[in-house]
DNA sequence: ACGCTAGGTGTACGGTGTACGCCTGTCAAC
DNA sequence: GTTGACAGGCGTACACCGTACACCTAGCGT
Protein backbone atom coordinates (compact mmCIF):
# COMPACT_ATOMS: atom_id res chain seq x y z
CA UNK A 1 0.00 0.00 0.00
CA UNK A 2 1.41 3.37 -0.94
CA UNK A 3 2.22 5.35 2.21
CA UNK A 4 -0.67 7.62 3.18
CA UNK A 5 -1.90 7.76 -0.41
CA UNK A 6 -0.75 11.28 -1.47
CA UNK A 7 -4.03 13.00 -2.45
CA UNK A 8 -3.98 11.34 -5.84
CA UNK A 9 -5.82 13.88 -7.98
CA UNK A 10 -7.86 12.13 -10.56
CA UNK A 11 -6.32 11.56 -13.90
CA UNK A 12 -6.24 14.27 -16.50
CA UNK A 13 -8.11 14.07 -19.72
CA UNK A 14 -8.33 16.46 -22.61
CA UNK A 15 -11.55 17.97 -21.41
CA UNK A 16 -10.22 18.65 -17.92
CA UNK A 17 -7.12 20.29 -19.39
CA UNK A 18 -9.19 22.51 -21.65
CA UNK A 19 -11.56 23.57 -18.91
CA UNK A 20 -8.69 24.36 -16.59
CA UNK A 21 -7.09 26.45 -19.31
CA UNK A 22 -10.31 28.39 -19.81
CA UNK A 23 -10.67 28.94 -16.07
CA UNK A 24 -7.07 30.09 -15.80
CA UNK A 25 -7.46 32.50 -18.70
CA UNK A 26 -10.67 33.81 -17.18
CA UNK A 27 -9.04 34.70 -13.92
CA UNK A 28 -5.50 35.61 -14.94
CA UNK A 29 -5.64 36.48 -18.63
CA UNK A 30 -4.55 34.64 -21.73
CA UNK A 31 -0.90 35.46 -21.11
CA UNK A 32 -1.03 33.39 -17.92
CA UNK A 33 -1.92 30.30 -19.94
CA UNK A 34 1.55 28.94 -20.56
CA UNK A 35 2.20 25.24 -20.56
CA UNK A 36 4.09 25.67 -17.31
CA UNK A 37 1.49 27.89 -15.72
CA UNK A 38 -1.38 25.67 -16.70
CA UNK A 39 0.45 22.57 -15.49
CA UNK A 40 1.08 24.17 -12.12
CA UNK A 41 -2.58 25.17 -11.96
CA UNK A 42 -3.40 21.49 -12.39
CA UNK A 43 -0.76 20.31 -9.92
CA UNK A 44 1.11 18.51 -12.62
CA UNK A 45 4.39 18.69 -14.47
CA UNK A 46 4.37 20.70 -17.74
CA UNK A 47 5.08 17.80 -20.05
CA UNK A 48 2.08 15.90 -18.74
CA UNK A 49 -0.15 18.18 -20.79
CA UNK A 50 1.37 16.95 -24.01
CA UNK A 51 -0.28 13.60 -23.47
CA UNK A 52 -3.63 15.29 -24.04
CA UNK A 53 -2.83 18.15 -26.36
CA UNK A 54 -0.50 18.15 -29.36
CA UNK A 55 0.99 21.57 -28.78
CA UNK A 56 0.10 24.99 -27.52
CA UNK A 57 -1.70 25.99 -30.67
CA UNK A 58 -4.05 23.05 -30.32
CA UNK A 59 -4.56 23.97 -26.69
CA UNK A 60 -5.87 27.42 -27.47
CA UNK A 61 -7.86 25.97 -30.35
CA UNK A 62 -9.47 23.68 -27.83
CA UNK A 63 -10.15 26.60 -25.53
CA UNK A 64 -11.92 28.37 -28.36
CA UNK A 65 -13.98 25.26 -28.96
CA UNK A 66 -15.06 25.24 -25.33
CA UNK A 67 -16.16 28.85 -25.57
CA UNK A 68 -17.93 28.37 -28.89
CA UNK A 69 -19.64 25.30 -27.54
CA UNK A 70 -21.95 27.62 -25.62
CA UNK A 71 -23.61 29.08 -28.70
CA UNK A 72 -27.32 28.43 -28.59
CA UNK A 73 -29.08 27.94 -31.95
CA UNK A 74 -31.63 30.56 -32.97
CA UNK A 75 -35.40 30.21 -32.78
CA UNK A 76 -36.37 28.18 -35.89
CA UNK A 77 -39.44 30.37 -36.37
CA UNK A 78 -37.28 33.35 -37.34
CA UNK A 79 -36.89 34.56 -40.90
CA UNK A 80 -33.54 33.94 -42.51
CA UNK A 81 -32.09 37.35 -41.85
CA UNK A 82 -33.13 37.44 -38.23
CA UNK A 83 -31.96 33.87 -37.81
CA UNK A 84 -28.49 34.70 -39.06
CA UNK A 85 -28.49 37.83 -36.99
CA UNK A 86 -29.49 35.89 -33.90
CA UNK A 87 -26.88 33.24 -34.47
CA UNK A 88 -24.14 35.79 -34.82
CA UNK A 89 -25.30 37.63 -31.73
CA UNK A 90 -25.37 34.34 -29.85
CA UNK A 91 -21.75 33.79 -30.85
CA UNK A 92 -21.00 37.27 -29.64
CA UNK A 93 -22.58 36.55 -26.30
CA UNK A 94 -20.51 33.39 -25.96
CA UNK A 95 -17.30 35.19 -26.86
CA UNK A 96 -17.95 38.15 -24.61
CA UNK A 97 -18.24 35.87 -21.62
CA UNK A 98 -14.47 35.46 -21.85
CA UNK A 99 -12.45 38.61 -22.40
CA UNK A 100 -9.53 36.69 -23.85
CA UNK A 101 -11.60 34.83 -26.45
CA UNK A 102 -11.32 37.42 -29.25
CA UNK A 103 -7.58 37.37 -29.13
CA UNK A 104 -7.51 33.59 -28.92
CA UNK A 105 -9.73 33.24 -31.97
CA UNK A 106 -7.53 35.61 -33.90
CA UNK A 107 -4.38 33.82 -32.79
CA UNK A 108 -5.53 30.27 -33.42
CA UNK A 109 -4.99 29.11 -36.95
CA UNK A 110 -6.83 25.89 -36.36
CA UNK A 111 -10.04 25.08 -38.18
CA UNK A 112 -11.75 22.78 -35.70
CA UNK A 113 -15.08 21.04 -36.27
CA UNK A 114 -16.75 23.41 -33.84
CA UNK A 115 -15.46 26.40 -35.78
CA UNK A 116 -16.46 24.91 -39.09
CA UNK A 117 -19.82 24.01 -37.64
CA UNK A 118 -20.59 27.59 -36.78
CA UNK A 119 -19.45 28.80 -40.17
CA UNK A 120 -21.61 26.19 -41.79
CA UNK A 121 -24.61 27.20 -39.74
CA UNK A 122 -24.25 30.85 -40.72
CA UNK A 123 -23.77 29.98 -44.37
CA UNK A 124 -26.76 27.68 -44.15
CA UNK A 125 -28.84 30.50 -42.74
CA UNK A 126 -28.02 32.69 -45.71
CA UNK A 127 -28.70 29.89 -48.16
CA UNK A 128 -32.03 29.29 -46.46
CA UNK A 129 -32.91 32.85 -47.41
CA UNK A 130 -32.41 31.94 -51.02
CA UNK A 131 -29.05 33.62 -51.53
CA UNK A 132 -26.97 31.86 -54.14
CA UNK A 133 -23.89 29.96 -53.02
CA UNK A 134 -21.89 32.66 -54.73
CA UNK A 135 -23.53 35.56 -52.97
CA UNK A 136 -23.43 33.63 -49.71
CA UNK A 137 -19.72 33.24 -50.11
CA UNK A 138 -19.15 36.93 -50.62
CA UNK A 139 -21.37 37.87 -47.72
CA UNK A 140 -19.50 35.48 -45.46
CA UNK A 141 -16.31 37.25 -46.42
CA UNK A 142 -17.90 40.62 -45.87
CA UNK A 143 -18.98 39.60 -42.41
CA UNK A 144 -15.44 38.54 -41.65
CA UNK A 145 -14.73 38.26 -37.97
CA UNK A 146 -18.19 39.54 -37.22
CA UNK A 147 -19.27 35.95 -37.63
CA UNK A 148 -17.57 35.36 -34.30
CA UNK A 149 -19.33 38.19 -32.63
CA UNK A 150 -16.63 40.78 -32.57
CA UNK A 151 -15.14 43.38 -34.82
CA UNK A 152 -11.49 44.33 -34.61
CA UNK A 153 -10.73 46.52 -31.64
CA UNK A 154 -9.70 49.66 -33.45
CA UNK A 155 -10.54 52.18 -30.82
CA UNK A 156 -9.25 50.64 -27.65
CA UNK A 157 -7.00 52.71 -25.47
CA UNK A 158 -3.86 50.90 -24.34
CA UNK A 159 -3.82 52.87 -21.07
CA UNK A 160 -0.96 55.38 -20.93
CA UNK A 161 2.09 54.11 -19.10
CA UNK A 162 2.70 57.18 -17.00
CA UNK A 163 -0.32 59.36 -16.32
CA UNK A 164 0.85 62.69 -17.72
CA UNK A 165 0.72 65.93 -15.82
CA UNK A 166 -2.23 68.23 -16.52
CA UNK A 167 -0.04 70.58 -18.57
CA UNK A 168 1.28 67.74 -20.70
CA UNK A 169 -2.23 66.47 -21.13
CA UNK A 170 -3.39 69.90 -22.19
CA UNK A 171 -0.57 70.25 -24.68
CA UNK A 172 -1.17 66.79 -26.09
CA UNK A 173 -4.87 67.44 -26.41
CA UNK A 174 -4.17 70.65 -28.26
CA UNK A 175 -1.79 69.00 -30.68
CA UNK A 176 -4.14 66.07 -31.13
CA UNK A 177 -7.03 68.36 -31.96
CA UNK A 178 -4.92 70.06 -34.55
CA UNK A 179 -3.49 66.98 -36.20
CA UNK A 180 -6.46 64.63 -35.97
CA UNK A 181 -9.55 66.80 -35.89
CA UNK A 182 -11.86 64.22 -37.35
CA UNK A 183 -10.83 61.48 -35.01
CA UNK A 184 -11.43 63.86 -32.15
CA UNK A 185 -14.76 64.82 -33.58
CA UNK A 186 -16.13 61.35 -33.88
CA UNK A 187 -14.76 60.46 -30.47
CA UNK A 188 -16.68 63.36 -29.03
CA UNK A 189 -19.76 62.37 -31.00
CA UNK A 190 -19.58 58.94 -29.43
CA UNK A 191 -19.55 60.27 -25.88
CA UNK A 192 -22.40 62.73 -26.11
CA UNK A 193 -24.90 60.12 -27.15
CA UNK A 194 -27.65 59.05 -24.80
CA UNK A 195 -26.09 59.25 -21.40
CA UNK A 196 -22.86 60.71 -20.11
CA UNK A 197 -20.37 58.01 -20.96
CA UNK A 198 -16.91 57.60 -19.58
CA UNK A 199 -14.36 59.31 -21.80
CA UNK A 200 -13.60 57.61 -25.08
CA UNK A 201 -15.87 54.65 -24.52
CA UNK A 202 -18.66 53.98 -26.96
CA UNK A 203 -21.49 51.50 -27.06
CA UNK A 204 -19.71 48.58 -28.60
CA UNK A 205 -22.82 46.48 -28.73
CA UNK A 206 -24.54 49.14 -30.76
CA UNK A 207 -21.58 49.51 -33.09
CA UNK A 208 -21.58 45.80 -33.64
CA UNK A 209 -25.24 45.56 -34.45
CA UNK A 210 -25.00 48.63 -36.65
CA UNK A 211 -22.36 47.04 -38.83
CA UNK A 212 -24.07 43.67 -38.77
CA UNK A 213 -27.36 45.12 -39.94
CA UNK A 214 -25.65 47.27 -42.52
CA UNK A 215 -24.18 44.12 -44.04
CA UNK A 216 -27.25 41.92 -43.70
CA UNK A 217 -29.56 44.59 -45.09
CA UNK A 218 -27.14 45.13 -47.95
CA UNK A 219 -27.09 41.41 -48.62
CA UNK A 220 -30.86 41.30 -48.63
CA UNK A 221 -31.04 44.17 -51.10
CA UNK A 222 -28.60 42.51 -53.43
CA UNK A 223 -30.50 39.29 -53.23
CA UNK A 224 -33.83 40.94 -53.93
CA UNK A 225 -32.26 42.75 -56.86
CA UNK A 226 -31.15 39.43 -58.29
CA UNK A 227 -27.45 40.12 -57.88
CA UNK A 228 -25.02 37.85 -59.63
CA UNK A 229 -21.27 37.99 -59.60
CA UNK A 230 -21.29 39.05 -63.25
CA UNK A 231 -21.82 42.59 -62.06
CA UNK A 232 -18.64 42.36 -59.97
CA UNK A 233 -19.88 45.21 -57.83
CA UNK A 234 -22.54 45.36 -55.10
CA UNK A 235 -24.32 48.34 -56.70
CA UNK A 236 -23.62 50.93 -59.33
CA UNK A 237 -20.78 53.29 -58.52
CA UNK A 238 -21.63 56.68 -57.14
CA UNK A 239 -20.78 58.48 -60.35
CA UNK A 240 -24.02 58.31 -62.28
CA UNK A 241 -22.46 58.14 -65.72
CA UNK A 242 -20.48 55.08 -66.72
CA UNK B 1 45.09 54.37 -33.61
CA UNK B 2 42.76 51.39 -33.63
CA UNK B 3 44.37 48.51 -35.53
CA UNK B 4 43.21 48.44 -39.17
CA UNK B 5 39.99 50.27 -38.37
CA UNK B 6 37.47 47.37 -38.27
CA UNK B 7 34.98 48.28 -41.03
CA UNK B 8 33.21 50.75 -38.79
CA UNK B 9 29.63 50.51 -40.02
CA UNK B 10 27.93 53.81 -39.64
CA UNK B 11 26.01 54.44 -36.53
CA UNK B 12 22.52 53.17 -36.09
CA UNK B 13 19.56 55.41 -35.81
CA UNK B 14 15.90 54.65 -35.34
CA UNK B 15 15.13 54.89 -39.00
CA UNK B 16 17.90 52.50 -39.99
CA UNK B 17 16.72 50.01 -37.38
CA UNK B 18 13.15 50.20 -38.62
CA UNK B 19 14.09 49.81 -42.25
CA UNK B 20 16.32 46.87 -41.45
CA UNK B 21 13.46 45.26 -39.55
CA UNK B 22 11.13 45.72 -42.50
CA UNK B 23 13.70 44.28 -44.88
CA UNK B 24 14.30 41.32 -42.60
CA UNK B 25 10.59 40.63 -42.26
CA UNK B 26 10.20 40.89 -46.02
CA UNK B 27 12.77 38.25 -46.72
CA UNK B 28 12.46 35.95 -43.73
CA UNK B 29 9.04 36.53 -42.24
CA UNK B 30 7.86 38.36 -39.19
CA UNK B 31 8.94 35.52 -36.90
CA UNK B 32 12.55 36.16 -37.93
CA UNK B 33 12.34 39.65 -36.51
CA UNK B 34 13.54 38.96 -32.99
CA UNK B 35 15.72 41.44 -31.19
CA UNK B 36 18.61 39.02 -31.52
CA UNK B 37 17.93 38.23 -35.15
CA UNK B 38 17.56 41.85 -36.14
CA UNK B 39 20.69 42.78 -34.23
CA UNK B 40 22.67 40.11 -36.03
CA UNK B 41 21.25 41.34 -39.31
CA UNK B 42 22.67 44.74 -38.45
CA UNK B 43 26.00 43.36 -37.24
CA UNK B 44 25.34 44.58 -33.76
CA UNK B 45 24.67 43.22 -30.31
CA UNK B 46 20.99 42.80 -29.34
CA UNK B 47 20.93 45.37 -26.59
CA UNK B 48 22.16 48.05 -28.95
CA UNK B 49 18.67 48.21 -30.44
CA UNK B 50 17.17 49.37 -27.19
CA UNK B 51 18.97 52.66 -27.57
CA UNK B 52 16.71 53.40 -30.52
CA UNK B 53 13.52 51.54 -29.72
CA UNK B 54 11.78 51.27 -26.36
CA UNK B 55 10.80 47.62 -26.67
CA UNK B 56 9.70 45.07 -29.22
CA UNK B 57 6.16 46.33 -29.36
CA UNK B 58 7.37 49.76 -30.35
CA UNK B 59 9.62 48.16 -32.92
CA UNK B 60 6.79 46.51 -34.77
CA UNK B 61 4.71 49.65 -34.34
CA UNK B 62 7.50 51.47 -36.11
CA UNK B 63 7.58 48.86 -38.83
CA UNK B 64 3.88 49.38 -39.38
CA UNK B 65 4.51 53.10 -39.63
CA UNK B 66 7.10 52.52 -42.32
CA UNK B 67 4.66 50.43 -44.32
CA UNK B 68 1.78 52.85 -43.84
CA UNK B 69 4.04 55.72 -44.84
CA UNK B 70 3.68 54.56 -48.42
CA UNK B 71 -0.01 55.36 -48.67
CA UNK B 72 -0.61 57.84 -51.44
CA UNK B 73 -3.50 60.30 -50.96
CA UNK B 74 -6.43 60.00 -53.37
CA UNK B 75 -7.14 62.26 -56.31
CA UNK B 76 -8.77 65.37 -54.82
CA UNK B 77 -11.20 65.53 -57.74
CA UNK B 78 -12.97 62.40 -56.57
CA UNK B 79 -16.35 62.43 -54.86
CA UNK B 80 -16.36 61.65 -51.17
CA UNK B 81 -17.29 57.99 -51.52
CA UNK B 82 -14.76 57.28 -54.22
CA UNK B 83 -12.16 59.24 -52.31
CA UNK B 84 -12.65 57.13 -49.20
CA UNK B 85 -12.70 54.03 -51.33
CA UNK B 86 -9.47 55.05 -53.01
CA UNK B 87 -7.77 55.85 -49.77
CA UNK B 88 -8.67 52.51 -48.29
CA UNK B 89 -7.54 50.69 -51.40
CA UNK B 90 -4.27 52.64 -51.29
CA UNK B 91 -3.77 51.42 -47.72
CA UNK B 92 -4.49 47.93 -48.94
CA UNK B 93 -1.87 48.24 -51.64
CA UNK B 94 0.68 49.43 -49.10
CA UNK B 95 -0.11 46.59 -46.73
CA UNK B 96 -0.10 43.93 -49.42
CA UNK B 97 3.43 44.88 -50.40
CA UNK B 98 4.52 43.21 -47.17
CA UNK B 99 2.94 39.86 -46.41
CA UNK B 100 3.64 40.19 -42.69
CA UNK B 101 1.99 43.59 -42.35
CA UNK B 102 -1.53 42.38 -41.58
CA UNK B 103 -0.38 40.34 -38.67
CA UNK B 104 1.85 43.13 -37.43
CA UNK B 105 -1.00 45.62 -37.51
CA UNK B 106 -3.22 43.23 -35.62
CA UNK B 107 -0.50 42.51 -33.09
CA UNK B 108 0.61 46.04 -32.43
CA UNK B 109 -1.43 47.80 -29.80
CA UNK B 110 0.27 51.13 -30.45
CA UNK B 111 -1.62 54.10 -31.77
CA UNK B 112 1.10 56.00 -33.58
CA UNK B 113 0.68 59.36 -35.32
CA UNK B 114 0.86 57.64 -38.70
CA UNK B 115 -1.94 55.28 -37.72
CA UNK B 116 -4.03 58.09 -36.31
CA UNK B 117 -3.32 60.14 -39.41
CA UNK B 118 -4.79 57.52 -41.68
CA UNK B 119 -7.82 57.10 -39.47
CA UNK B 120 -8.28 60.83 -39.46
CA UNK B 121 -8.03 61.02 -43.22
CA UNK B 122 -10.69 58.34 -43.68
CA UNK B 123 -12.98 59.96 -41.14
CA UNK B 124 -12.38 63.30 -42.85
CA UNK B 125 -13.38 61.78 -46.16
CA UNK B 126 -16.69 60.65 -44.74
CA UNK B 127 -17.29 64.00 -43.09
CA UNK B 128 -16.54 65.69 -46.39
CA UNK B 129 -19.45 63.76 -47.82
CA UNK B 130 -21.72 65.41 -45.30
CA UNK B 131 -22.10 62.46 -42.93
CA UNK B 132 -22.64 63.57 -39.37
CA UNK B 133 -19.85 62.94 -36.85
CA UNK B 134 -22.12 60.37 -35.29
CA UNK B 135 -22.75 58.44 -38.48
CA UNK B 136 -19.10 58.78 -39.42
CA UNK B 137 -18.17 57.19 -36.14
CA UNK B 138 -20.44 54.22 -36.70
CA UNK B 139 -19.25 53.74 -40.25
CA UNK B 140 -15.63 53.79 -39.09
CA UNK B 141 -16.50 51.02 -36.68
CA UNK B 142 -18.31 49.11 -39.37
CA UNK B 143 -15.32 49.32 -41.63
CA UNK B 144 -13.15 47.94 -38.84
CA UNK B 145 -9.89 46.53 -40.06
CA UNK B 146 -10.96 47.17 -43.62
CA UNK B 147 -9.63 50.66 -43.05
CA UNK B 148 -6.21 49.05 -43.20
CA UNK B 149 -6.90 47.28 -46.41
CA UNK B 150 -7.53 43.80 -45.19
CA UNK B 151 -10.32 41.76 -43.74
CA UNK B 152 -9.65 38.96 -41.29
CA UNK B 153 -8.29 35.86 -42.93
CA UNK B 154 -11.15 33.51 -42.25
CA UNK B 155 -10.70 31.11 -45.07
CA UNK B 156 -7.01 30.51 -45.13
CA UNK B 157 -5.82 26.95 -45.13
CA UNK B 158 -3.05 26.22 -42.63
CA UNK B 159 -1.56 23.56 -44.90
CA UNK B 160 -2.06 20.02 -43.57
CA UNK B 161 0.90 18.72 -41.59
CA UNK B 162 1.05 15.31 -43.20
CA UNK B 163 -0.36 15.02 -46.69
CA UNK B 164 -2.98 12.32 -46.17
CA UNK B 165 -3.29 9.25 -48.32
CA UNK B 166 -5.89 9.32 -51.07
CA UNK B 167 -8.21 7.05 -49.09
CA UNK B 168 -7.96 9.24 -46.02
CA UNK B 169 -8.56 12.26 -48.17
CA UNK B 170 -11.60 10.63 -49.71
CA UNK B 171 -13.00 9.71 -46.31
CA UNK B 172 -12.35 13.16 -44.94
CA UNK B 173 -13.98 14.79 -47.92
CA UNK B 174 -17.02 12.60 -47.51
CA UNK B 175 -17.38 13.40 -43.84
CA UNK B 176 -16.76 17.08 -44.50
CA UNK B 177 -19.46 17.19 -47.14
CA UNK B 178 -21.89 15.62 -44.71
CA UNK B 179 -21.09 17.77 -41.73
CA UNK B 180 -20.42 21.10 -43.40
CA UNK B 181 -22.40 21.07 -46.64
CA UNK B 182 -22.78 24.83 -46.85
CA UNK B 183 -19.13 25.56 -46.29
CA UNK B 184 -18.34 23.11 -49.02
CA UNK B 185 -20.93 24.66 -51.27
CA UNK B 186 -19.62 28.18 -51.02
CA UNK B 187 -16.06 26.94 -51.36
CA UNK B 188 -17.05 25.30 -54.61
CA UNK B 189 -18.91 28.39 -55.72
CA UNK B 190 -15.74 30.38 -55.21
CA UNK B 191 -13.68 28.14 -57.44
CA UNK B 192 -15.99 27.89 -60.42
CA UNK B 193 -16.04 31.60 -61.01
CA UNK B 194 -14.34 33.07 -64.05
CA UNK B 195 -11.35 30.91 -64.60
CA UNK B 196 -10.27 27.59 -63.18
CA UNK B 197 -8.76 28.61 -59.89
CA UNK B 198 -6.52 26.56 -57.67
CA UNK B 199 -8.55 24.68 -55.10
CA UNK B 200 -9.94 26.69 -52.23
CA UNK B 201 -8.52 30.00 -53.34
CA UNK B 202 -10.83 32.86 -54.10
CA UNK B 203 -10.35 36.34 -55.43
CA UNK B 204 -9.47 38.16 -52.25
CA UNK B 205 -9.29 41.51 -53.96
CA UNK B 206 -12.84 41.08 -55.18
CA UNK B 207 -14.05 39.97 -51.76
CA UNK B 208 -12.46 43.01 -50.24
CA UNK B 209 -14.00 45.46 -52.65
CA UNK B 210 -17.34 43.72 -52.38
CA UNK B 211 -17.46 44.22 -48.64
CA UNK B 212 -16.06 47.73 -48.87
CA UNK B 213 -18.68 48.80 -51.38
CA UNK B 214 -21.43 47.10 -49.45
CA UNK B 215 -20.51 49.21 -46.44
CA UNK B 216 -19.90 52.47 -48.30
CA UNK B 217 -23.09 52.13 -50.33
CA UNK B 218 -24.97 51.37 -47.14
CA UNK B 219 -23.46 54.43 -45.50
CA UNK B 220 -24.47 56.56 -48.44
CA UNK B 221 -28.03 55.29 -48.30
CA UNK B 222 -28.30 56.03 -44.61
CA UNK B 223 -26.91 59.47 -45.13
CA UNK B 224 -29.30 60.25 -47.98
CA UNK B 225 -32.18 58.99 -45.86
CA UNK B 226 -31.19 61.41 -43.14
CA UNK B 227 -30.24 58.74 -40.65
CA UNK B 228 -29.71 59.75 -37.05
CA UNK B 229 -28.72 57.59 -34.13
CA UNK B 230 -32.21 58.00 -32.69
CA UNK B 231 -33.31 55.18 -34.94
CA UNK B 232 -30.67 52.90 -33.42
CA UNK B 233 -30.85 50.68 -36.46
CA UNK B 234 -29.53 51.12 -39.99
CA UNK B 235 -32.88 50.32 -41.57
CA UNK B 236 -36.18 48.84 -40.54
CA UNK B 237 -36.04 45.22 -39.52
CA UNK B 238 -37.07 42.62 -42.05
CA UNK B 239 -40.32 41.82 -40.27
CA UNK B 240 -42.69 44.35 -41.79
CA UNK B 241 -44.94 44.70 -38.76
CA UNK B 242 -43.53 46.28 -35.57
C1' DA C 1 1.39 -13.81 -12.93
C1' DC C 2 2.63 -11.39 -16.83
C1' DG C 3 3.42 -7.77 -19.90
C1' DC C 4 1.39 -3.88 -22.38
C1' DT C 5 0.34 0.67 -22.42
C1' DA C 6 -1.62 5.18 -21.03
C1' DG C 7 -0.20 8.75 -18.39
C1' DG C 8 2.76 11.41 -15.22
C1' DT C 9 7.98 12.69 -14.31
C1' DG C 10 12.63 14.80 -14.91
C1' DT C 11 16.06 16.72 -17.39
C1' DA C 12 17.71 19.42 -21.01
C1' DC C 13 18.00 22.43 -25.14
C1' DG C 14 17.50 26.37 -27.69
C1' DG C 15 14.92 30.20 -28.07
C1' DT C 16 12.75 34.72 -26.35
C1' DG C 17 12.59 39.85 -24.33
C1' DT C 18 15.08 42.87 -21.58
C1' DA C 19 17.36 44.92 -16.98
C1' DC C 20 21.83 46.56 -15.54
C1' DG C 21 26.49 48.01 -15.75
C1' DC C 22 30.64 48.96 -18.34
C1' DC C 23 33.49 50.99 -21.85
C1' DT C 24 34.65 54.03 -25.54
C1' DG C 25 34.51 57.41 -29.23
C1' DT C 26 32.85 62.11 -30.18
C1' DC C 27 32.36 66.72 -29.31
C1' DA C 28 31.45 71.16 -26.71
C1' DA C 29 33.15 74.12 -23.26
C1' DC C 30 36.68 75.76 -20.68
C1' DG D 1 44.72 71.49 -25.38
C1' DT D 2 42.51 69.34 -21.67
C1' DT D 3 38.48 67.87 -19.67
C1' DG D 4 34.13 66.06 -18.85
C1' DA D 5 29.57 64.84 -20.35
C1' DC D 6 27.12 61.77 -22.86
C1' DA D 7 25.32 59.02 -26.71
C1' DG D 8 25.73 54.57 -28.25
C1' DG D 9 27.49 49.96 -28.67
C1' DC D 10 28.95 45.72 -25.59
C1' DG D 11 28.56 41.81 -22.30
C1' DT D 12 26.53 39.40 -18.91
C1' DA D 13 22.65 37.65 -16.67
C1' DC D 14 17.84 36.48 -15.57
C1' DA D 15 13.42 34.63 -16.03
C1' DC D 16 10.53 32.59 -18.95
C1' DC D 17 8.91 30.17 -22.97
C1' DG D 18 7.64 25.65 -25.89
C1' DT D 19 8.86 21.07 -26.29
C1' DA D 20 12.02 16.71 -27.50
C1' DC D 21 13.45 12.53 -25.24
C1' DA D 22 13.99 9.04 -21.90
C1' DC D 23 12.23 7.05 -17.89
C1' DC D 24 9.15 5.25 -14.43
C1' DT D 25 4.84 3.40 -12.68
C1' DA D 26 -0.03 2.22 -11.91
C1' DG D 27 -3.74 -0.31 -13.82
C1' DC D 28 -5.64 -3.55 -16.80
C1' DG D 29 -6.58 -7.44 -20.10
C1' DT D 30 -4.93 -11.88 -20.81
From TrEMBL, chains A, B:
Cited InterPro entries:
Homeodomain-like_sf, HTH-type_TetR-like_transc_reg, HTH_TetR, Repressor_TetR_C, Tet_transcr_reg_TetR-rel_C_sf
Asked if DNA-binding is a keyword of the record, the answer is: yes
One GO molecular function term of this record is: transcription cis-regulatory region binding
According to the UniProt record, which residues make up the DNA-binding region? Answer: 34-53
Q: Which UniProt keywords apply?
A: DNA-binding, Transcription, Transcription regulation
Q: Where is the HTH tetR-type domain?
A: 11-71
Recorded hits in SUPFAM superfamilies, A to Z, give: Homeodomain-like, Tetracyclin repressor-like, C-terminal domain
Listed under GO biological process in this entry are: negative regulation of DNA-templated transcription
- Gene3D superfamilies this protein is in? Homeodomain-like, Tetracycline Repressor, domain 2
**Name of a matching Pfam family:** TetR_C_1
Q: What is this protein called in UniProt?
A: Transcriptional regulator, TetR family
UniProt source species: Trujillonella endophytica
Taxonomic lineage is:
Bacteria, Bacillati, Actinomycetota, Actinomycetes, Geodermatophilales
Amino acid sequence: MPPAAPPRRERLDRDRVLRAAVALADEAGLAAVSMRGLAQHLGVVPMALYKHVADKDELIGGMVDVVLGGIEPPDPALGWKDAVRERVLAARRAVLRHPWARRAIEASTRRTPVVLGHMDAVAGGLRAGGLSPDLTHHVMHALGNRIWGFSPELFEEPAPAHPPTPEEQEAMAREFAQRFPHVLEIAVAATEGDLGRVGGGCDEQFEFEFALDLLLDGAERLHRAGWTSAARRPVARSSQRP
